[in-house]
């Protein structure tokens, strides 16, 4: 990953927030609307099981500090989750108000209200116990590792996070669309975790052949020598390639890299006519960002239809409002160059076959249906490839379809000193899922370390 | 079409909705605007020797995001010269002859002083007098207001003084800040009062500012107890009204006051015997315009019920209030939960477990803590659209969250029904016990 130029650009005007903050009165009114369900479905639906009615009633009672600590106790990344969680399919989707023929409680915005209060006052979390002798390494600096580290540190264990990027926070810092989460907010959460006493080291954790400490690299052998247990929160690797001619041309940029660039390079230039390829949430994030950065036209192509598109429906609807144009049943064949730069994408029309055994409808090319779309920027967004092969080979950690195989309740891998969570386990889900994975693994690791100490 | 015209102890008004003595009836200009909006009558802000007020004067209780569930005030009687108030009474009566203008009075406890103010007020043209024996703050420290209303002999004596000279109906306004309201009500009757009004405000301290540690309302760093009113006091007022309305030794017309902000409350006071109702806090909060729906709502309800006049339903609920000892111990109801409308908030479940009789169940007989622990131990993930098994659509209650009532154990306390946010989801239904009615009084008499 290339070095970003610092400081990060201020994109506030181009990227106003998707869900603006509630003011105090609005938050109070909304908090009072909450029924305070027993064993609330919203809490059960949250992967980190934040006690939602409890934190909402604390907003209503004017105990905002208590509200924030209730959230952070369950989810150390309560700030970013309040902004990026797809609440429609999580807490707010489970809200009983739906059955009452009313709007669900705006849980996400209420959580943000409590988090904004907390961070605006530089309030500190309760002090952690002094460091125990047992130490844990977290590989990767994203949400899973941050959550795992915070949970272990709160229980007294020494934790070091190894991250290969200049700024910690993983995709929270680099990969989430600006109108949802600003890098500065991600970094505030990182500082919160650091304030608990978690150490951060910028280093590439590699195989046995890694270049040694002077190259900023740490080998697995070194890691295993220095730490009792290791948590893998390394995320996914680079974006999957299209595998078509012209992919290496200037003007072609992967969606995640595109998001990282505009967030971290002042002066980043978007194309005037942009083609986005893919139908996931990241494709939509990139397409929306291209619009807001000034692209005159943004065309998103997906080889199946609106019905099969993996993006959340509300993301899709939002994107249409942003002015992104959607094109279905089209598969790229080639990126066409002019003057050494991407100048067009050649597509073929597709047709959907009958659903196969897995229920998915394969898209096949329609012969002789080629067409070309002129553009000056191409953003492929095809999901990320899995990057855990080294561990599989050298530590015989079992994989499952390219992801690390774990015991779900504990995060334990098939190797006794390794735990894992986040995108490298689930293939790429939400921040809150990574936090939940990290937390569950931390609890299991603490139990294992306790057992070892007592034994 | 309902006929709302009222004759209350001889005071006529186009409808039973009167503004109570207070800030909304401070001046003739205000009262005329109120009549224009539809109020049937007004009890003038208490007239007496002008006083000096403090700043600030009001404080309130907010509840669950709603403002002013209850209001408290430390304001005294009129701060305007008696002559000005009386001149304006004359003017209002001239311009609004069909509306009721009642003068609230409070002067020091001297016979001649009372005689003087009664004559002057009636000469000014008021339709009736209301004796303020209820103001619980400030004036009571000077031997007036509640200081009179709390001592039956004083109340009787002053009422007699007034009746010696009064030519118009005399209403005695009662304070609820007394152990048994009936003692003063009977005293007023002995003093020949023509009617009663109840309640005046209730002694209160609404709250304390947790920053300055000063009770509200804050008058330069200190406070004093005030009089409580507004929606919160309605149940207390209804009880007071019921007590004096059912007392055979009282037997006077009653003008109901206390927490009335709409036609429903008005109807309730009338069902317990009131001939008119008086409103202050709601008019202070929203303005005179609220009377429109009071008139409209009461008329519509009367039409639906087939009541043509107020007297057709006045007091109809009184026989339904009795002493506990006469209630039927063999009457039995149980809670039933409608599974189709239950939204799964499970508020009834936790209310029954922690606050009632442990007869509503979820998931077998697990204790509340076990249910919560099971939910926290569950692994939840963000569903990915089109990949994961679809969750239940929004608004469909998972069957596991729908509680079940053990009807054998249910005592019919109503708590679950009261906490349920969904209308008609929980109903309290009668079950036949097969036993004849039997009250505590009957049971103990037969022993």
Explain what the structure shows.
- The complex is a heterodimer of chains A (455) and B (447).
- With 455 residues, chain A is an alpha/beta fold.
- In chain A, 36% of the residues lie in helices and 18% in strands.
- Chain A has 17 helices and 17 strands.
- Chain A has a five-stranded parallel beta sheet with strand order 3-2-1-6-17, with helices on both faces.
- Mean pLDDT of chain A is 88; it is low at 1-6 and 207-211.
- Chain B has 15 helices and 18 strands.
- The N and C termini of chain B lie far apart (54 Å).
- By secondary structure, chain B is an alpha/beta fold.
Task: Name the descriptors.
heterodimer, A: about 450 residues, alpha/beta, five-stranded parallel β-sheet, four-stranded parallel β-sheet, 17 helices, 17 strands, about 35% helix, about 20% strand, globular, disordered N terminus, B: about 450 residues, eight-stranded parallel beta barrel, four-stranded antiparallel β-sheet, 15 helices, 18 strands
Largest sheet of chain B: 8 strands, parallel, barrel
Q: Label the structural class of chain B.
A: alpha/beta
Poorly predicted segments of chain A: 1-6, 207-211
Q: Using a beta-carbon cutoff below 8 angstroms, give the protein chain pair with the largest interface and the number of residues from each chain.
A: A-B, 45 and 35 residues
Mean pLDDT of chain B: 95
Radius of gyration of chain B: 27 Å
* Approximate helicity band of chain B: 25-40%
Strand arrangement within the widest β-sheet of chain B reads 3-4-7-8-9-10-13-14
According to DSSP, the number of beta strands of chain B is: 18
Count of DSSP strands of chain A: 17
């Amino acid at each position: 990953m290339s070095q970003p130029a610092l400081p990060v650009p201020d994109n506030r005007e181009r990227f106003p927030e998707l869900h603006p903050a509630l003011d105090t009165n609005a938050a109070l009114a909304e908090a009072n609307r909450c029924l305070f369900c027993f064993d609330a479905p919203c809490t059960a639906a949250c992967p980190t099981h934040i006690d939602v009615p409890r934190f909402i009633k604390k907003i209503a009672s004017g105990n905002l500090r208590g509200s924030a600590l209730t959230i952070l106790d369950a989810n150390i990344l309560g700030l970013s989750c309040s902004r990026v969680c797809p609440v429609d399919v999580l807490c707010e989707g489970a809200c009983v108000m739906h059955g009452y023929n009313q709007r669900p409680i705006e849980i996400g915005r209420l959580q943000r209200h409590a988090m904004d209060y907390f961070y605006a006052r530089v309030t500190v979390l309760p002090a952690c116990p002094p460091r125990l002798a047992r130490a844990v390494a977290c590989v990767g600096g994203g949400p899973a590792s941050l959550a795992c580290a915070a949970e272990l540190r709160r229980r007294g264990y020494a934790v070091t996070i190894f991250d290969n990027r200049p700024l910690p926070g993983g995709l929270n810092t680099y990969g989430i669309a600006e109108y949802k989460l600003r890098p500065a907010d991600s970094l505030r959460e990182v500082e919160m975790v650091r304030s608990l006493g978690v150490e951060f080291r910028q280093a590439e954790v590699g195989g046995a052949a890694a270049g040694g400490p002077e190259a900023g690299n740490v080998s697995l052998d070194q890691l295993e020598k220095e730490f009792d247990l290791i948590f893998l929160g390394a995320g996914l690797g680079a974006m999957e390639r299209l595998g078509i001619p012209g992919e290496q041309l200037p003007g072609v940029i992967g969606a995640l890299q595109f998001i990282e660039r505009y967030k971290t390079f002042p002066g980043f230039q978007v194309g005037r006519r942009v083609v986005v390829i893919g139908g996931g949430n990241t494709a939509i994030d990139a397409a929306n960002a291209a619009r807001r950065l000034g692209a005159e036209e943004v065309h998103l192509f997906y080889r199946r239809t609106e019905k099969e598109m993996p993006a959340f429906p509300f993301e899709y609807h939002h994107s249409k409002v942003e002015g992104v144009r959607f094109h279905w049943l089209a598969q790229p064949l080639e990126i066409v160059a002019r003057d050494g730069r991407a100048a067009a994408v050649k597509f073929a029309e597709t047709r959907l076959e009958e659903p196969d055994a897995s229920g998915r409808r394969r898209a096949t090319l329609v012969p002789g249906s080629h067409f070309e779309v002129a553009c000056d920027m191409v953003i492929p967004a095809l999901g990320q490839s899995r990057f855990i092969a080294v561990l599989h080979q050298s530590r015989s950690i079992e994989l499952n379809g390219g992801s690390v195989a774990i015991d779900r309740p504990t995060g334990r891998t098939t190797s006794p000193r390794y735990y894992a969570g986040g995108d490298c386990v689930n293939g790429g889900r939400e921040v809150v899922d990574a936090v939940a994975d990290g937390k569950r693994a931390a609890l299991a690791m603490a139990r294992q370390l306790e057992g070892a100490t007592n034994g | 079409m309902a006929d709302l015209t009222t004759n209350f102890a001889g005071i006529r008004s186009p409808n039973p909705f009167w503004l109570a003595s207070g800030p909304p009836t401070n001046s003739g200009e205000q009262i005329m605007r109120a009549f224009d909006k539809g109020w049937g009558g007004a009890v003038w802000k208490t007239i007496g020797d002008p006083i000096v007020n403090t700043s600030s004067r009001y404080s309130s209780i907010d509840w669950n995001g709603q403002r002013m569930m209850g209001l408290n005030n430390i304001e005294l009687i009129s701060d305007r010269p008696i002559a000005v108030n009386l001149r304006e009474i004359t003017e209002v009566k001239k311009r609004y002859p069909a509306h009721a203008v009642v003068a609230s009075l409070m002067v020091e406890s001297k016979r001649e002083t009372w005689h003087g103010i009664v004559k002057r007020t009636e000469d000014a043209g008021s339709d009736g007098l209301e004796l303020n024996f209820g103001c619980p703050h400030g004036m009571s420290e000077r031997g007036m207001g509640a200081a009179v209303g709390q001592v039956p002999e004083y109340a009787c004596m002053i009422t007699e003084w007034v009746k010696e000279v009064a030519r118009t109906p005399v209403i005695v306004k009662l304070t609820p800040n007394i152990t048994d309201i009936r003692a003063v009500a009977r005293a007023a009757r002995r003093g020949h009062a023509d009617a009663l009004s109840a309640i005046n405000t209730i002694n209160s301290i609404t709250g304390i500012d947790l920053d300055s540690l000063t009770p509200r309302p804050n008058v330069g760093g200190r406070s004093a107890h005030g009089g409580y009113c507004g929606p919160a006091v309605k149940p207390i007022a209804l009880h007071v009204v019921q007590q004096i309305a059912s007392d055979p030794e009282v037997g006077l017309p009653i003008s109901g006051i206390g927490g009335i902000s709409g036609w429903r409350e008005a109807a309730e006071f009338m069902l317990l015997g009131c001939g008119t109702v008086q409103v202050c806090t709601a008019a202070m909060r929203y303005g005179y315009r609220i009377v429109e729906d009071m008139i409209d709502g009461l008329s519509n309800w009367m039409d639906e019920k087939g009541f043509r006049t107020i007297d057709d339903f006045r007091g109809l609920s009184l026989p339904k209030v009795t002493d506990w000892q006469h209630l039927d111990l063999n009457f039995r109801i149980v809670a039933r939960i409608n599974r189709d409308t239950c939204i799964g908030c499970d508020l009834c479940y936790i209310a029954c477990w922690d606050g009632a009789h442990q007869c509503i169940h979820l998931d077998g007989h697990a204790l509340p803590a076990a249910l919560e622990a099971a939910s926290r131990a569950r692994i939840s993930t963000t569903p990915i659209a089109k990949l994961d098994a679809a969750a239940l659509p929004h608004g469909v209650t998972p069957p596991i969250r729908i509680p079940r009532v053990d009807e054998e154990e249910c005592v019919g306390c109503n708590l679950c029904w009261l906490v349920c946010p969904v209308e008609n989801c929980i109903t309290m239904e009668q079950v036949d016990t097969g036993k004849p009615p039997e009250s505590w009084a009957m049971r103990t008499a037969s022993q």
